[in-house]
Amino acid sequence: MRALWLCAWFIPLLASADIYRWTDAQGKVHFSETPPPGAQRVEVKPQVVERDEATREREERTRRFYDARRDESAAAQSRAAQQQAQLDQQCAKWRHDLTSISQGGRYFTKDGSGERTYYSDAQVDAARQALSARLAEGCR
């Protein structure tokens, strides 16, 4: 931890380098960190970029546009995940029903008065084929 503090303390000292300017015998201008005799120290100031109002408005519109696209994408992914969860739940029900039909037994439905109407063997086979087709078509 102490080493981290020392590094943080020395970084600004390392970043502040002096720049020197001089002209050689052929009249060519040079810049360097090490000063030869007769070099002048050059003060380097960071460039501050001021953006005008139109630029700030354009940047804000761009930011809102990308935020809206990101929100739309997140909503679409959420809807797709919900639809996939519903499909997975439906597929699990179909698999359960197919397993139940394959085990055999008597299957029935109740009519409006509560009376049982039993499936014939052909109806059970048709239901088995329909469930198998649904599973093959839409389930993984």
Highlighted features:
140 residues; two-stranded antiparallel sheet; 59% helix; alpha+beta; rod-shaped; single chain
Account of the 3D structure:
This protein is an alpha+beta fold and 140 residues long. It has 3 helices and 5 strands; from the N terminus they run αβββαββα. It has a 3-stranded antiparallel β-sheet with strand order 2-1-3, with no helix packed on it.
Distance between the termini: 53 Å
- Secondary-structure-derived class: alpha+beta
Q: What kind of assembly state do the chains in view correspond to?
A: single chain
Strand content: 5-15%
Instruction: State the low-pLDDT regions, or none.
Output: none
How would you sum up the major sheet?
3 strands, antiparallel
DSSP, total strands: 5
Fraction of residues in helix:
55-70%
Overall mean pLDDT stands at 84
Order of helices and strands: HEEEHEEH
Spatially, the strands of the biggest sheet line up as 2-1-3
Radius of gyration: 39 Å
Task: Write a concise synopsis of the structure shown.
This protein has 140 residues and is an alpha+beta fold. It has helices at residues 2-15, 53-102, 121-138; strands spanning 19-23, 29-32, 40-42, 108-110, 116-118. It starts with a helix and ends with a helix.
